[in-house]
Amino acid sequence: MMARPERKNADYFPFYAKDGRTLFILEGKYRCKGTGFFTNVMRFLTLQDNHHFCIADETDQMYFMSKCHCDEELGMDMLNIMVKTEKLDKELWENHKIIACQDLLDSLKDAYRKRTNDIITIDEIRVNAGIKWNSGGRNPVKGGSKPQRKGKETKGKETKGTTGKKSIPKTFPITEQMKSYAQKKGYIACLEYLTEGFLIHYKSEGNKKACWYSAWQRWLRNQMEWYPEKNVPKGEQPLTKIQPKTYAQAQDAERRDRAKWLLEEKDEGKQKADTKRIDHA
């Protein structure tokens, strides 16, 4: 019997009747639009796998604003207010344009009570985004694991190229943003299989990266460029292997072969015409 797949979203979130500071400010400045936007943001995050969403990409931003029924300029103003009031995580927003809410994660814990998997934590979202955090979980610490006092500088030389880099996280879920990125790049093969290969490779190598999602995007692009014959829907046979290594080079080779064939055809036609003239002479 197959185990039930892990579920990483929810169907509802608690909405308390008492106004919080963020909602009070949004309603005071934007009236009903503020109420609607706040509610739609929470609804959207509740339905997302792992309850966060990145709008660094322009199309993702357009999609998010459309789902929240708000124009982009007004929506960005209200998101910045939600960051200032600490309703949304400041570091994730300012560094990566990731929308995540600690209060929402806390309110959804009960929905995960009977599940085999736990709800993602805000620290796990930060780690996956490439932000290194100290044991207090509030301030980013770059270039070391120990927090240092304010106003003090770290003594000694830092190892070149390792500042802010982390080992691959234990959990690396395929998010909606990753699915959207793959779709935009034209990747139609099995995303789970590709991601499994990515994890096996980097876990065996022990590499460290500043942002593992960026590394995954690079891995996907490389797989499409180096092995385009494998980019087929799940269950279908791979295409005949394309040589040389990259698809762009293969296209150039195909153009050269066709030009050579046309020249050969032209030479053959010329030879036939010369033979015909000799026969008539």
Radius of gyration: 27 Å
| Mean pLDDT score | 77
String of helices and strands: HHEHHHEHHEHHEHH
Tell me the overall shape. Answer: elongated
Distance between the termini: 86 Å
The strands making up the biggest β-sheet line up spatially as 1-2
Structural class: mainly alpha
Strand content: under 5%
Helix content: 40-55%
Low-confidence stretches: 132-162, 241-245
Number of separate strands: 4
Main beta-sheet strand count, sense and barrel state? 2 strands, antiparallel
Number of domains: 3
Q: If helices are DSSP runs of H or I spanning 4 or more residues, what is the number of helices?
A: 11
What does this structure look like?
This protein has three domains: 21-128; 166-230; 244-271. Helices cover 51% and strands 3% of the residues. The protein has helices at 21-30, 32-47, 58-67, 72-84, 90-96, 102-108, 122-128, 176-185, 191-205, 212-226, 247-280, and strands at residues 53-54, 98-99, 166-167, 208-209. The strands form two sheets. A two-stranded antiparallel sheet has the order 1-2. Mean pLDDT is 77; it is low at 132-162 and 241-245.
